[in-house]
Amino acid sequence: MEKSFLCLLLIAVYAASAIPTSSLYSEDHSYPRYIDFPDGEGNMHKVDLEAEPDMELLNNIERNPANNQYLLFTRRNPDNPQSLVINDAASIANSNFNPNAPTVVVVHGWLSNQNTNINPTIRDVYLRKLETNVIVMDWRRLALSDYATAVRGVPAVGRGLGRFLAFLSELTGQPLTQMHLIGFSLGAHVVGNAGRELGGKVARVTALDPAGPLWNLNSNRVNPNDGIYVEAIHTDGGYTVGGLGIGSNVANADFYPNGGISQPGCLTNFCNHNRAWEFFAATVTYNHLVGRLCNNQIQLSLNTCRGAELRMGNDILTKSGSGMYRLDTSRRYPY
Question: I want to staple 251 with a disulfide (CB 3.0 to 4.6 A). Which of 128, 162, 230, 234 is the partner?
């Protein structure tokens, strides 16, 4: 009996050790104090996760959320944005904003701005497909600060976005159920906080590889209550050295393309991280990437998920679903 028990124990230990710990998406993962994190152009920056935040800047951001820019693109002005200003009705009335068309808000990540690649890429796929109000939010005033300060200021920036959208909705009559908030990296947590400010009433919140460092146990991170339907796409899970994404479930439906840690055709974490918005943009056009529901994280890691299907991404405002999904992609667009 003792020998049988010992054999079973050894088998269990071996089975557990055969699964890389990086694939288990532990909620308790902690990053080293110093990490490398890229800006929007792929340049790496040394980040001190224990740095003292810039309280003067944070206090100013809290007092003045209108510092953020809201830049409207439509089919009438696909390349030259119109600036929309909170509490300025004329800026809305004199713009091409169409309350009968869906509104998509795109929010960049750390050390980025309105010109970072995610913004024109997602803008263009929407405008090619249908009449849309694409609003690019530029929050560079905080996003260009050190990482620890930017993390602390994300909730205030998100609340500012929420208040702007509430103003826009009240002024134009467009319901929140016609709005889709899309954020990348730190921007994913921004849109989560914006949705929270609006009582979780926006149609969709899409978190594209939400940032991991300083967010694993952060109550201000994006969560399933931030919209009617909240989706996350994880492409650079934070449980390998240099991983930039949170790598754990944060939404109603969490997708892990290719396991959520490394992506085909990528040799760097920056490439893995960016694949989230590249995948999403492709799905707006093709709606072709289909996930399978996983019963647990081991199935996800071993690619043995056989549950119900759910399409990742796309532009459908009435989309719904829940659970954890695995799918595999190719190396090149449209993946």
Answer: 230
